[in-house]
Design goal:
The chain is of the alpha/beta class. The protein contains 6 helices and 11 strands. A hairpin with a 6-residue loop joins strand 2 and strand 3. The mean pLDDT is 95.
Length: 194
């Protein structure tokens, strides 16, 4: 990660940063992460990329991914986290039709327990199997996010190869409320102001 991105990540970790600055810096970081993703996938395969965004925090990725892959259909999964258990409950899913060449890219800024990633991965894998009659090749699944906690990152590796996980940083742990430490707080709350 280049020095400018390190500074922006450092800035958004500051819980006193204004919402305006948090959004501005997050947008630049999201652009950077999408560029990093696209360096890992040959340009000839870009038409096969199907981004899957997890409501609502991952909306930070919507503009950069749709501008850089203007012909790619985009899927959405809505998961609501129970603050006591950290287990997410699905309330929405709308995924495009997959084919055997599809490359699934799951976008979610924060990877804490990996529960949201696991559920989104399961949702995409089930849809892929229904559409193609085959199981998805784990090498055709990517994850893009800002931060992970080490425990969640280790769980993610069971689903996705390490070279297909694009992150700005992996922080050491989760706190008692399942937030990444040191992390940056609740990304969605900080980005949307509620």
């Amino acid at each position: 990660m280049n020095e400018d991105m390190v500074k922006l990540l450092e800035a958004i970790r500051n819980r006193n940063l204004s919402m305006c600055e948090f959004r501005r810096n997050s947008k630049v970081l999201a652009d950077y992460l999408i560029d990093e993703l696209l360096t890992k996938i040959p340009a000839t395969k870009w038409p096969n990329i199907i981004p899957v965004l997890v409501f609502r925090a991952s909306l930070v990725f919507l503009h950069p991914i749709s501008m850089k892959l203007p012909n790619s259909p985009i899927g959405f999964v809505g998961l609501r986290r129970d603050e006591k258990t950290a287990i997410a409950e699905k309330y929405y899913s709308n995924l495009p039709r997959f084919n055997e060449n599809s490359i699934v890219v799951i976008l979610d800024p924060m990877l804490g327990t990996a529960g949201t990633l696991r559920q989104t991965h399961e949702e995409a894998a089930e849809k892929y199997a229904a559409d193609t009659g085959k199981q998805i090749d784990r090498n055709n699944v990517y994850y893009v996010g800002f931060l992970a906690a080490e425990p969640g990152y280790q769980k993610a590796l069971k689903l996705i190869p390490p070279e297909n996980i694009i992150l700005l940083a992996v922080d050491p742990e989760l706190d008692a409320n399942f937030y990444i430490v040191p992390g940056l707080g609740d990304f969605g709350d900080r980005y949307f102001g509620n």
